[in-house]
Amino acid sequence: MTIAYGNHAPAPTRPGGKHKGIVVCWFLGLGSLVSWNSMLTIGDYYYCLFPKYHPSRVLTLVYQPFALGTMAMLAYNEAKINTRKRNVAGYILFAASTLMLMVVDLATSGGGGIGPFIGICAIVAAFGVADAHVQVFLCWFGCFRSPDLCSEIDHKSSV
Fold first, then answer.
1. What pLDDT sits at residue 134?
2. Which residues are listed as membrane-spanning (predicted)?
3. Is the CB of residue 47 less than 8 Å from the CB of residue 97?
4. Residues 30, 159 contacting (CB under 8 angstroms)
5. Nearest CA to 91 among 36, 30, 139, 32?
6. Whole-angstrom Cα distance, residue 124 to residue 94?
7. What's the longest Cα–Cα distance across the chain?
8. Residue 87's closest CA among 134, 132, 126?
């Protein structure tokens, strides 16, 4: 095997950008965290609306399969998918899902029932798909750029 540069790899022509990358990861992580945090904090309200359906448990069980399944598909097809478009699509889906939660609540006048609960479950499934779009990008961005960025993303995910 021939090594083109001898024993040492050439120095990068434009070193730097690590701090900018950390800031970008922080803002993107904050965008996904705020959306899911809104779902967690509204749990008490949903317990008042749907006392028979255990919304905190059910919404978590609805969210996880969609998030994990979409993340697996996106990770498998990483080379075929435009990362920027996928990331933007994830944040658009987060915004649309958050808006739809408010629309469902306003349309039903805050009333309970199985219909609004199923609608909220569908919206939470969209949250899972959106989170998968965003998380795959953040993991790719951090882990393939710098070990420091990978540790920043690991810390954010564990919180």
1. 83
2. 21-38, 58-76, 88-108, 114-141
3. no
4. no
5. 32
6. 10
7. 72
8. 134
For residue 121, the model assigns a pLDDT of 92
Instruction: Look up residue 55 and give its amino acid.
Output: P
> Which pLDDT value is given to residue 143?
60
Name which of 18, 32, 60 is nearest 130 in CA terms: 32
- pLDDT value of residue 111: 81
Token code pair at residue 136: 């795959």
Q: Residues, the chain, total?
A: 159
> Is there a contact between 134 and 32 (Cβ–Cβ < 8 Å)?
yes
- CA–CA separation, 140 and 135 (whole Å): 8
Amino acid symbol at 29: G
Lookup: tokens for 14 = 């434009």
Distance CA 149, CA 42 (A): 31
Which pLDDT score, from 0 to 100, does residue 69 have?
A: 93
| Mean per-residue pLDDT pooled into runs of 10, the chain (159 residues) | 57 64 74 75 86 86 91 84 84 89 88 88 92 74 59 51
Structure tokens at 46: 């949903």
Q: Which of 97, 101, 94, 98 is nearest to 32 (CA)?
A: 94
**Which pair of structure tokens corresponds to residue 29?**
């992580």
User: Cα-flanking dihedrals φ and ψ of residue 84, to 5°?
Assistant: -65, -45
